[in-house]
Amino acid sequence: MNQPVRRGPIAAFFVGLWDVMNFTRRLIVNFLFFGLLLFVVMIFVIAAGSGAIKPLSERTTLVLAPEGRLVEQYSADPAMRALARMTGDKGAQEVQLRDLLRAIDAAREDKHIERVMLRVDKLQPTGYASLREVADALARLRQSGKQIVAFGENLGQHQYLLAAQADEVYLDPMGGLILEGLGRYRQYYRQGLQEKLGVDVHVFKVGEYKSAVEPFILDAASPEAKEADLYWMNDVWQRYLADIAKARKLEAAQLAAGIDTLPEGLAAAGGDLARFALQQKLVDGLKTQEEVENLLAERGVADADAETGFRSIGLDGYLALLDSKRLPLDKRPQVAVVVAEGEITDGEQPAGRVGGVSTAALLREARDDDDVKAVVLRVDSPGGGVYASEQIRREVAALKEAGKPVVVSMGDLAASGGYWISMNADRIYADPSTITGSIGIFGMIPNVTRTLDRIGVHTDGVGTTRFAGAFDITRPMDPAVGSVIQSIIDKGYADFTGKVAAARNKPVEAIDEVARGRVWSGAQAQERGLVDELGGLQAALADAAKRARLGEAGKYRVRYVEKAPSPFAQFMAGLAGSRIGALLVKDSDIAQALLARAMPEAGAQLRFVEEAAKSPDGSPVKALAYCFCGF
């Protein structure tokens, strides 16, 4: 039996003193912790009260000034988005296409919205399919009798497609606007890799138009790549000119001539881009922002307390107002929308990426939900891994087998693997300017044997079979290994074209004629039977509802099936998005640092090729269905 340790009076004194100090330290820390917790809760409660939605006054101007990338789905959690807005991180800002369309369509019927001021300077370039959906919504708004006034300081041709839909377009006298056309140029690395570094790149593919690998094996684009790219780009560009001409009541040929004679025309305008744009009738006048705001104050209701000088509401505020009017319990049958945006890779992926497991799980959730009667798969993807694409395609097929119609709505890009996940839908919709097709497979393996030779490093060893270590990039590639890989690629292409033929009810030979890695515009794809209808998301939703016999719009609910943010993310977003939270973050460097550490991260966005090269499943060969297309 252990005897208790006896301490002398001096030792007992110091031990007791230490216990008292330790108790006091814990007590103070606990007081600080609970005090901070109470402080945060109080701020959140006050912020929630101060953030109450106020009713919209009559004769309000809706200011649409989207900033950042136009996306189908946010790639960051709510808290990180709120922090990006407060700290002014423009590079991280995103605008959901669905939100922008929802605001424009609601304003058309809103009696409190008198007109719209459009500012698109800070909207980053995106694909023309998405822009055309927004442009169509603005055109409908204008046709309803609501005035649209657009202002810009410097406008690119992507942004101008939206600005051109306004009744009046004003440009800052010191601003600029140039229409230049579409171009697609890439760097080619063959000489640098093979001759300078000694890296040999072995390529395996099917289809002379599958040009994604060309930069690694050529010094310039192949004739086939140039032919295919120019074919679909000319189609998209002519449509762009037609859209601008229609909105501005001009001739497309006049716009094209203005581009061809740009040096002479700009010289005649004294090098003044704003004046040149006015002469070309691309804008209606040259005004500063203050002059435009004064104009809107005169036409609307002046408000000295408003930042704009007139009674107005911004996009975020208007969306919050619309959200406050939603019914908490909506029992109408649903058309579910599942977004597939970004590269298609294996496993679970965050928003803004397509995961074979995660996206399939969302489709399965829609299949198991009795309230969901039909599904729209919104695709904006260049493709990716073949197996991950097949996982998603199988879920589309399972939805159809369960009796739930599936309609695909293609966004800016639905090529290669993006087409793979689309082909089994009951109906495929695409905008005429969507980029699709690229039905093909490729594989690429670098070899650094010559690189190592140059520095006197050599690889040697033994293996139990002729293929043991055969995929090691530090050893010369055996021709037999190349034959194995090409057989896998050939089989992948046969699977791809065979599945497309079965899904589209066409002979394999007919699919091969329009496949072979070739890219098409949405209009060209429809002509070749790869797309059923031309139209945007609303047309796809209406089709899905009709197939499920849900009746007219308003008799069913559209619900996006997405991975819900965690309660902590929602709490932090609510705090950071409030006025008090924004004030704390804006004025305190310490608060910014703490919030940045505390908020959940969306995960590192690794590039597709880097992830594919890792091959986490241990497979030495992985077929890819990816399209390096776009501009």
Walk me through what this model shows.
It is a single chain. Helix 5 (157-163) links the parallel strand 5 and strand 6. The chain has 631 residues and is of the alpha/beta class. The radius of gyration is 29 Å and the shape is globular. Among the domains are: 60-184 and 240-324, 2-enoyl-CoA Hydratase, Chain A, domain 1, CATH 3.90.226.10; 334-439 and 477-563 and 607-626, 2-enoyl-CoA Hydratase, Chain A, domain 1, CATH 3.90.226.10. Helix content is 47%, strand content 17%. Helix 3 runs parallel beside helix 4, helix 14 (356-368) runs parallel beside helix 15 (386-401) and helix 18 (479-504) packs across helix 19 (508-514).
Strand content: 15-25%
Q: What Rg is obtained from the alpha carbons, in whole angstroms?
A: 29 Å
* Count of individual beta strands: 22
As a percent range, the share of helical residues equals 40-55%
Q: Termini separation (Å)?
A: 82 Å
Q: Main beta sheet: strand number and arrangement?
A: 8 strands, mixed
- The CATH architecture designation of the domain at 334-439 and 477-563 and 607-626 is Alpha-Beta Complex
- Shape type: globular
Top-tier CATH class of the domain at 334-439 and 477-563 and 607-626: Alpha Beta
CATH superfamily of the domain at 334-439 and 477-563 and 607-626: 2-enoyl-CoA Hydratase, Chain A, domain 1
Which regions have little confidence, pLDDT < 50, spanning 5+ residues? 587-609
Pairing-aware structural class of the strands and helices?
alpha/beta
Q: What do we call the CATH topology of the domain at 334-439 and 477-563 and 607-626? A: 2-enoyl-CoA Hydratase, Chain A, domain 1
Mean pLDDT: 86
Number of DSSP helical runs: 25
